[in-house]
């Protein structure tokens, strides 16, 4: 008698494969910690707008809970790495939003150095079981490969990435206070982008 293609052994193998796929599908990270922390440079601090209209302040209003603004204007990735422990890791992070790298890019820091620092920052935060969201920066004339490095970093670490947090803002006087920093309306757009990224984890 001709053997059926779907004999018992084949069926068992097929069901085992289905079970493996189901069990290995990506699950939302289990987050610990208590606080949402925005860690970065002037884009986090809110340069170009009043403090109550920075993107962390506007994000706090959107989600109805406190958001810590740990932004310092002029910070490079090396500066941020030096204060990571006190400004983020000691503050019970649950979700950390990063805007870092723009000053490195502007100051001509080699991308290898900048993203080595960023990788250390991301991994240290993730080691606390916190979600990391990276707000990438893409500048048309002085990108020097940074945009691609943000993508690579997100792929390697599993961090969420907003590839260009200033997309559609630069060059629009109604959204920018100067060539680099948004105004109140621009920061609202940034806040909405971060809100969209973290909404499933709130």
What does this structure look like?
This protein is 45% helix and 12% strand. With 202 residues, it is α/β, with parallel strands linked by helices. The chain has a single domain (34-201), classed as SGNH hydrolase (Rossmann fold). Strands 2-1-3-4-5 form a five-stranded parallel β-sheet, sandwiched between helices. Helix 3 (55-63) packs across helix 8 (184-198), helix 4 runs parallel beside helix 6 (111-126) and helix 6 runs parallel beside helix 7. The N and C termini lie far apart (60 Å).
| Overall CATH architecture | 3-Layer(aba) Sandwich
The profile of the biggest β sheet is: 5 strands, parallel
End-to-end Cα distance, whole Å, is: 60 Å
Total domain modules: 1
Look at the structure and name the CATH superfamily.
SGNH hydrolase
Strand-residue proportion: 5-15%
Count of alpha/pi helices: 8
CATH topology: Rossmann fold
Which residue ranges are poorly predicted, with pLDDT under 50 across at least 5 consecutive positions? 1-26
Helix content: 40-55%
Provide the CATH top-level class. Answer: Alpha Beta
Order of helices and strands: HEHHEHEHHEHEH
Spatial extent as radius of gyration: 21 Å
Rough shape?
A: globular
List the helices and strands and how they pair.
Blueprint: H1 8-24, E1 35-40, H2 42-45, H3 55-63, E2 68-71, H4 77-87, E3 93-99, H5 102-107, H6 111-126, E4 131-135, H7 146-157, E5 160-162, H8 184-198
Parallel strand pairs: 1-2, 1-3, 3-4, 4-5
Quick recap:
The protein is built from eight helices and five strands, in the order αβααβαβααβαβα. The chain is α/β, with parallel strands linked by helices. It has a five-stranded parallel beta sheet with strand order 2-1-3-4-5, sandwiched between helices.
């Amino acid at each position: 008698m001709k053997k059926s293609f779907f004999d018992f052994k084949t069926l068992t193998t097929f069901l085992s494969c289905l079970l493996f796929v189901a069990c290995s599908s990506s699950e939302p990270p289990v987050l610990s910690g208590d606080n949402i922390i925005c860690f970065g440079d002037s884009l986090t601090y809110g340069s170009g707008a009043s403090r109550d209209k920075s993107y962390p302040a506007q994000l706090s209003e959107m989600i109805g809970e406190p958001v810590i603004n740990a932004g310092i204007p002029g910070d490079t990735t090396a500066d941020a790495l030096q204060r990571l422990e006190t400004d983020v890791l000691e503050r019970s992070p649950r979700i950390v939003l990063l805007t870092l790298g723009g000053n490195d890019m502007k100051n001509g820091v080699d991308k290898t150095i900048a993203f080595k620092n960023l990788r250390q920052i991301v991994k240290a935060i993730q080691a606390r079981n916190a979600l990391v969201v990276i707000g990438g920066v893409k500048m048309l004339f002085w990108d020097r490969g940074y945009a691609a490095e943000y993508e690579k970093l997100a792929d390697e670490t599993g961090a969420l990435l907003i590839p260009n947090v200033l997309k559609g803002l630069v060059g629009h006087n109604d959204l920018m206070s100067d060539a680099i920093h948004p105004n109140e309306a621009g920061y609202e757009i940034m806040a909405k982008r971060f809100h969209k990224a973290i909404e499933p984890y709130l």
